[in-house]
């Protein structure tokens, strides 16, 4: 455990234990985190808005409840940041775009409501690629976020600010959205645990839409156990979102220590072909640790993986063009000339794919291939319990390295988009460093298997403890 004066380095679990035992106060924790956030934001640009006044007020409320010996949720008093796609009552919500530079919602997203109901302390709104369009954080209209492990490199996108904020200990957890990689890639690039849950496991209500059939609402934390604690609060049915599943919510922390004995782990060969040998070595080393703990490892195939990126960028851009049509500068927000280059590119691509004469050739065909990709996963999970594969084909790349090559940037998502197309859950966990830069791997499971993913991730994490390696800031 960190020195008592250094509250910002705490995990959620450790902080919750200290708060419950009254060894620290929520206001102490919040003040320490706010001070660090304000200082490091000048260096990292991970926040668009810091909510100091409301955070301190929420922390005082938690202290008042604790002083009356009320038993609270483990997230009570925990400083949490929100990706700036999440609507927040009276707090500016920009989606990282100048179009919404002065937009103040009159309601909270369901996830925000659930976090507030658990007495979590909202520290601020994090930077991101505008509208969620990007894999690096460079597409933000408020400037790029920098990677805390190397300020010349990207933190991954589009939940760039959320990842940088957590690993820099300017909050203890942060929300994100994952449409094709946007939680898992930043988690991989910043040595964090990042969950893309099953489609519909967490409500999308009040989260500014990117591609509605692909968007998943996830979060980033320092450890697997912390991640499970957050999902316990955010998951569940929502009357405001017809796609939110009515399936009962598990206690995701229960049985997390069960281990991996006799579990079958599949290694999809398509994800390891042509992979950087050093990244492959890191992942295989992690798999061998799980194998030594009793897991069984099998080679399997997901044959339609090669069509994943092409299929994703047809489906996604088509839905982007539809969702961004509402931002016409009439009801709210600025005029459409405020759209950045990447938003314009995706609107044009998607409108073309949906237009008369091209719909059947592009969008409809992509939807048929999407079904084949999902069937690949369904077949695989008849043979194995989970899959393990790389999250990114590279370590974090340099700022500007891919910004003038959209195709190269899109290929950053080559290992992550198929899970969104299939709707299955995927958990990124740290699995090492190359040249002092983080490497992540994905644990992928069948629908609503988040509890199993945490179980596998926790088993490996307890052996490796990569989360203990912090950036030097």
* CATH homolog superfamily: Amidase signature (AS) domain
User: How many helix segments?
Assistant: 14
Overall CATH class: Alpha Beta
Order of helices and strands: HHEHEHEHEHEEHEHEHHHEHHEEH
| Percent range of helical residues | 25-40%
Instruction: Please tally the β strands and state the result.
Output: 11
The largest β sheet comes out as: 11 strands, mixed
Task: Look at the structure and give the mean pLDDT.
Answer: 96
Percent in strands: 5-15%
Instruction: Count structural domains.
Output: 1
Q: Could you name the ranges where pLDDT drops below 50 across 5 or more consecutive residues?
A: none
CATH architect. name: Alpha-Beta Complex
Describe this structure in words.
It is built from 14 helices and eleven strands. An eleven-stranded mixed beta sheet has the order 1-3-2-4-6-5-10-11-9-7-8, sandwiched between helices. It is globular and about 65 Å long. Helix 8 links the parallel strand 7 (264-268) and strand 8 (296-300). It has helices at residues 12-20, 26-44, 52-67, 110-117, 160-167, 184-189, 224-234, 277-292, 308-323, 341-354, 360-380, 406-410, 417-422, 450-464; strands at residues 47-50, 79-83, 121-126, 173-178, 193-196, 216-221, 264-268, 296-300, 386-390, 426-434, 437-444. The two termini are 19 Å apart. The protein has one domain: Amidase signature (AS) enzymes (Alpha-Beta Complex). Helix content is 36%, strand content 13%. The mean pLDDT is 96.
